[in-house]
Design a protein that fits this description.
This protein is of the alpha/beta class. Helices cover about 40% and strands about 15% of the residues.
């Protein structure tokens, strides 16, 4: 259903696996990676003309070795290239030394050493800076002279392009020291996990993943808890609809919420639920008389009509959208959790009630889906100091309570009880507005009611939700977008997945 994401240690193993099993020498693999980088870089508007001067900062490890090959290939393509070499380790890597000798054969490539005894060079404003100082292996804060170099680079107005990683940025943890604030990253083979952290937005505003031909056999033998959702694999999970179908085949979803003054929440959820492909949707609300008929396709009932037979009447339940947090809402939530063994989506006020009455966690069904935003997540499961700690806590909480936790954000993460964490990359900042969570609850509840597993419903629902938001930008701006715009684009989102090509 998704691409596996590897850690920096696993990437080193993947390199070695490729060298052994392709087979290929490490120096030739570096050559291939650099060629792929240059081909991608030349497609970028800042490098579209060979008249643009290039300044490359290279460490003396393998990332610097990549930088030296990139310098040579850009020179052969007609660019004016200046390389600054910085000692980041006591001994040059073998591939760095080999590529330095190769580059030194070109008299018109300027190669300078940069150290603490020399002033930082003056770089023309029209130069493109390529950052190849550190790669994925760094796991400590950058300090001293190297931190000063990075700080100087960050003050420059030039376009900065990083090789694989912005130098100083760790692959899995949150940066503690200085890191290059790249304008763009061309990263090798796979997205790096830390690109998705909120703390790293200034370092990773955009990136492109390029395939450098690492051996696919490694993916078959190496496991990782991290996955990236993509359309081509989700397509395999979306059910086909038989020609001889009728509404009961596609399930009956119940949505519980919409207290006085909050009816819009459950109405948004209900409309999104219907757009997800469910056969029937019912709303249970204390405000049912006021919302009756707002969505003609949806059945509307009073809260008092919920009885102990709810488990046999429906295929899935979504609870919390505009539910309220008073005593009557608490009583209703307790009753729903105790009586119904149906798959459930638990959102908004239902989550707030559980955070105030932690004993309710014991009533959650296996694989129930919780959809908190970060504030709700903290109230439910505790505080954390950074994104890495948050994700670790998300995984631990999903395992402990045997539930699916959908932690909403720029890159919504989905934690499974089996210890797997899925990241979503659809969506945009225009979705930071009222009602978006209600729409997501409706979509996932509708998918559950159709018979999708809890994990598939969560993954497909989150991806579709973000994709509908992206498609809405075709006629809305990020400032003008509303939750109802996503609902109107659900059909296009489904079609987009069905006609998509494989993506990274």
């Amino acid at each position: 259903m998704m691409d596996t994401l590897f850690t920096s240690d696993q990437f080193r193993k993947w390199d070695n696996f490729t060298i052994t099993n392709e087979p290929i020498q490490s120096i030739d693999l570096m050559e291939r990676a650099a060629l792929t980088f240059v081909e991608a870089a030349k497609r970028l508007e800042p490098l579209s003309s060979e008249s643009v001067p290039i300044v490359i900062f290279c460490g003396n490890g393998n990332n610097g070795g990549d930088g030296l090959v990139i310098a040579r290939k850009l020179r052969l393509d007609g660019y004016d290239v200046h390389v600054y070499i910085i000692k980041v380790k006591s001994i040059d890597s073998d591939d760095f030394k080999t590529n330095l000798l190769r580059l030194e054969k070109y008299d018109d490539v300027h190669i300078s050493v940069l150290n603490s005894e020399l002033p930082f060079p003056t770089i023309s404003k029209d130069s493109i800076i390529i950052d190849a100082i550190f790669g994925t292996g760094i796991d400590r804060p950058v300090d001293g002279f190297l931190a000063n170099v990075i700080e100087k680079i960050n003050t420059l107005p030039n376009f900065i392009l990083s090789v694989d990683m912005p130098s100083g940025l760790p692959s899995e943890s949150v940066v503690k020291g200085k890191a290059v604030e790249a304008d763009h990253i061309i990263t090798f083979q796979q997205l790096k996990i830390s690109f998705l952290y909120s703390e790293h937005e200034q370092f990773c505003p955009s990136w492109e993943v390029v395939d450098i031909g690492l051996h696919n056999g490694f993916i078959e033998i190496e496991s990782s808890p991290y996955r990236l959702l993509n359309s081509s694999n989700l397509l395999r999970k979306i059910s086909t609809r038989p020609k001889h179908s009728f509404k009961n085949v596609f399930g009956h979803a119940a949505l519980i919420g919409g207290s006085h003054g909050m009816s819009g929440s459950v109405l948004l959820a209900a409309k999104a639920c219907m757009r997800s492909g469910v056969g029937l949707t019912s709303i249970y609300s204390e405000n049912h008389l006021q919302i009756l008929g707002h969505i003609p396709e949806v059945i509307t009932k009073g809260i008092e009509n919920i009885d102990d037979q709810i488990a046999s009447k429906y295929s899935a339940i979504g609870i919390g959208c505009g539910l309220g947090t008073g005593d009557s809402s608490l009583k209703l939530l307790k009753k729903t959790l105790k009586v119904s063994k149906l798959p459930k989506v638990i959102d908004a006020d239902a989550l707030n009630l559980i955070s105030e009455h932690k004993e309710l966690l014991n009533y959650l069904g296996k694989n129930d889906i919780l959809t908190p935003h970060i504030g709700e997540f903290k109230r439910l499961f505790g505080v954390f100091s950074d994104t890495k700690e948050m994700l670790d806590l998300q995984l631990a909480s999903a395992k402990e309570h045997q539930v699916i936790i959908v932690l909403k954000g720029a890159y919504t993460s989905i934690a499974s009880p089996d210890g797997t964490l899925f990241f979503n990359t659809t969506g945009n900042p225009g979705m930071a507005t009222a009602g978006m969570g209600d729409v997501l609850t409706g979509i996932i509840t509708g998918l559950l009611a159709q018979g999708y597993s809890s994990l598939d419903a969560a993954c497909i629902g989150v991806y579709l939700h973000g994709l509908a938001g992206d498609l809405a930008l075709n006629y809305q701006s990020m400032e003008s977008m509303m939750a109802s715009d996503l609902i109107e684009n659900m059909g296009l989102a489904f079609k987009s997945i069905k006609f998509s090509s494989p993506s990274l």
